[in-house]
Every structure is written in C-alpha cells, then in structure tokens.
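Q: Hand in one record:
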Amino acid sequence: MARNTERDEREATRRKEQLMKAGFKLFSENGIENVSLQKVADAADVGVATMYKYYQTKVKLVVAISGKIWGDIWKSVLAQNGPDFFENFTAYEYIEFYLDMIIRLYREKPEMLRFSNNYKNFIYHEGIEEEPLGEHLDVLEPLRAMYHKLYEQAKVDHSIRTDLSEQELFTTVAIAMLAVAERYAQGIVWANDHKTDHTQELKYLKEMLLMWCKGKTE
C-alpha cells in the first residue's frame, strides 16, 4: 500500500512541535546545559528514538525552538496588524516598536526571555558558528530587510542618527534592551533589590535608548 505522504508530513510536524514545546519548557526553567535529550523525550511522552529521528543533537533542537518562538512573534504581529503595518513607519518608530515588544514579552511571556538568555549562553559555550543557526536567523530576515529600508529613509527624514552604521546602531539597541529584559526575567538583579516587577526600569531604558538613537541629525 502506498504511503500517505500528507499524513506522514502532518505526523512529523505534530511530533516536532511536541518535542519543541517540551524542550522549550524544560530549557526555560532549568537551563539548556542541564537538560538532556532523553529528558525532553520523556516530557514529550515519546521514545528517545523518535527524538533522534527529528533532532539528532541538542543544538538542532535548540535552534529549531528559537526559530519557532521568534518566528511566531513576527507572525503574530502581522496577524494582529496586517502585512503593511510597518509601511509608513520611520526608523525611529520601528525601533520604538521593537523596544515596546520586548517590554510586552517581559510582562506577558517572561519564559521566552529566559529561554533566549539560556539559548545565547548555550550557543556561546558550545562555540556554535553562524551557519547552523540559519533556522533561527532566517526567520528574522524580514525584520532586517525592513530596518534596512527605514535606515536608508532616515538619511533623508533624520528620524534616527545615521552617523553609525545601521548594523552597529540596531545591534547596540537590540542587545542592550534584550539583555536587560532577560536578566530581569531570570531574576538576576542587585542583591538588595526585592522587586518582582521591573517594567518601569525597562521603560526608563527604552527612553534612554530612543534618545541615543535620535543623536544628531546630519
């Protein structure tokens, strides 16, 4: 009997999502280094052979999870606002949207920020080169393309400074905001700081970063 290719693909997709969901929860809560693929398979209620069928290494699973969660955020933004949402944005408004998005993640989905922090630590300690990260980086390509367009536009409308390269400017903003939000989500704060909600501090950081982005017009 001929195999039902469509059914097999649906089953593969279901299994992958099952494993990514289990892995995301475990990695967010316990760190990536502390969780084996066997533990992920157990949490997903599948055999370890099924795990290795789809994700032969922890790196492959972690990268797939990262690509999915950030890709889902992008899809959610477009689903809520429409595909042309950013068309009339300036570069300043685009960066402001990004900063607000990180604050929303901190408030509504801190587990994503915890995973993001654990992901970066894992990739760094494993010495992973950029090529295997393609599944993560590719989903962010539309964001980079839009930012490039708006940065070029800023050379005319002066909505942000352009004395720095587009990569240097956005990378600085993105890393600063994301890193601080991740630390707050992980509970890594000053020893005498017993606050549980650091939304206001993130809003202060947002204001400072936006002021820096304005810089001097050319």
About this structure: The mean pLDDT is 89.
